[in-house]
C-alpha cells in the first residue's frame, strides 16, 4: 500500500518507561536529563550525556535547547524515559550542527527526565 501522507513537522514522543505521572516540567524550570542523540537517517550517534556520565542541566521552555526538546520534554513526567523523534525544523534546521549533524537532519533522542527543579534528587523517593 502506497501512502501519500507527508511527514508531519514537529516532535513525536514515545514513552519507553513511565514517569511518576504528576511532576511535569513548566516553562522556566531547571531540568536534569540524560540523553543520547542519533541521526534518524543512519542511526549515527552524535552526542550522549550517558557516555560522559554527567547529566545535562538546562532551563526548559525559553529557547535554551532545540525546539523539539522544549516541546517534547514538557510532555514528560519525572523519571520518564522516552524517545523523541523530530523533524529537522525542530532540531538544527537548514544549518545543522557541523561537523556531526548535517543540514536538514531529522533527529532521534533517547531521553530520561532525572530532575525537575528541586524534585527527583538522587536517592529514589521524595517524602512529602
Describe the global form: globular
Question: What is the beta-strand fraction?
Answer: 25-35%
Kindly state the percentage of residues in helix.
under 10%
Structural class computed from helices and strand pairing:
mainly beta
Q: Mean of the pLDDT scores?
A: 89
Topology pattern, helix = H, strand = E: EEEHEHEE
Cα gyration radius (Å): 15 Å
Number of strands: 6
Give an overview of the whole structure.
The protein is mainly beta and 128 residues long. 8% of the residues lie in helices and 32% in strands. The protein contains 2 helices and 6 strands. Strands 1, 2, 3, 4, 5 and 6 form a 6-stranded antiparallel sheet that branches. The termini are far apart. Mean pLDDT is 89; it is low at 1-7 and 119-128.
Primary descriptors:
six-stranded antiparallel sheet, globular, 128 residues, disordered C terminus, mainly beta, disordered N terminus
In short:
The chain is mainly beta and 128 residues long.
Task: Produce the secondary structure layout.
Layout: E1 11-17, E2 30-39, E3 45-48, H1 49-52, E4 56-59, H2 67-72, E5 81-86, E6 107-116
Antiparallel strand pairs: 1-5, 2-3, 2-4, 2-6, 5-6
